[in-house]
């Protein structure tokens, strides 16, 4: 718990020292004001029943009213400035989540536990804990109560020590109630992110165009409604359970408070009646005993509240500390050299999956070779590319680029050597230009135009009033376009070509293209990838004809390897069988 506290306040110390100063001033103000309102009324009452001197009464009244005004004004100023810092912190912490999401180990992005942790982190610093604002409020209150307790304890111990016992009993009773209530909130926090994720999926998908088409065409509305009802039921069950428990413990808390008041006012009333204390002391002691009880209770509540908030915020720390994509290599990649790739006895299985997806894969892709990769669904073709891209590390064997293990290359330099279009590539809600350039501002505008022409996107751009500056999607611009599947694919190809890397990998690049566009990609393939080393994954075996070599993936390895002419002749061969099955329909 203290580690979490240290984590957040060391950020504050490092980045915003004014935040810490404001917190300290706020604590001083929080402690000062109650004492002003405890001590001055004692003297006012004593003056009213005693000397009744108007000038003294005016001075005391001025002291309490102006003092309170001054406190209020200062508290307001400090709060306003703290709110600005809290805003800054909110952005800082959320930025931390998005930076981490982009830098964490890629395998974690496909891991449900890690995705859950992401949600817990976001909710932990916002909804449940109230973020840095919520945490700092508790820290301020905690220290304010501690100092207030010390002050009023001194007054009560000197004047009426019995009241200390009453206050302590009341605090113990009240704390049990608060502790039990917090336990309920913890239960909610444990269960809620899971239900929430399901809820967000069920409610969000109904609106998303790609789902809403299926919902309408396959009458899936009632299935979605059932899912929605199930999720709502789960939420209601959790809330119902915790609401009853919280209500019960709130009642117990109120009863304890009632008994405490009975004891304080009964005892002090009696002392006043028998003449042991005067009216000023009566006011001071009832006020102090109540303040003592409230402050002691406050200390315990804040300890529990801090624990609760820090538990939630710890999820953020856990997420931020998740495994980074640490890439250790440091060798430069010679981008002027046409690369040679080699997989040597490579075996791999996904984390937490027992079976190997690839087993003892061996292949050499010489400089400038265009390799076609084919195989049935799930044969491991995309995994082969993911390994080449260092998104996962091989379990056995090694992958070499120009004879050097790819792990030994500087990661950024290695990434620059690869231009990859995955099947599940994504376009961003940015302009077409930004989507193709992706932050690369070095190249000329002319390069942009030529890749658009090569990928077949230029015709579309010419029809758009804003050309390349047209926004994709309507998130940020109502004039943004919803590109078709084929247009998106062309944009992804343009993005890869613009990168102008020496290795080009296209994973099913024509799946969404119309036959004419597909034919263009095939016939321009040499122009598209030039003399670069290229890997082309496709189900359309006709695409293999324009590649130099073909690797057929099956049974978790490369089952067949050769040119189209060689493989087609292989009697009973896997490739020959697949090719003749497709040829029947495409001949
Ligand atoms: P292909 O591209 O040939 O269709 P993939 O390489 O995508 O095949 O997948 C190969 C196998 O690995 C499939 O059985 C698939 O379900 C499994 N797989 C893919 N990604 C993951 C993952 N992140 N975790 C576990 N299994 C995966």
TrEMBL record:
Annotated membrane topology: Multi-pass membrane protein
Domain ABC transporter: from-to ranges: 341-580
GO molecular function: ABC-type oligopeptide transporter activity; ATP binding; ATP hydrolysis activity
Name of the featured protein: ATP-binding cassette, subfamily C
GO cellular component: plasma membrane
PANTHER family per the UniProt record, alphabetical: ATP-BINDING CASSETTE SUB-FAMILY B MEMBER 10, MITOCHONDRIAL, ATP-DEPENDENT PERMEASE MDL1, MITOCHONDRIAL
Domain of life: Bacteria
Compartment(s): Cell membrane
Organism: Anaerocolumna xylanovorans DSM 12503
InterPro entries assigned to the protein according to its UniProt record, in alphabetical order: AAA+_ATPase, ABC1_TM_dom, ABC1_TM_sf, ABC_transporter-like_ATP-bd, P-loop_NTPase, Type_1_exporter
Positions in coiled-coil regions: 289-316
Listed Gene3D superfamilies: ABC transporter type 1, transmembrane domain, P-loop containing nucleotide triphosphate hydrolases
Domain ABC transmembrane type-1: 135-308
Keywords: ATP-binding, Coiled coil, Membrane, Nucleotide-binding, Transmembrane, Transmembrane helix
Transmembrane segments: 20-44, 56-78, 139-156, 162-179
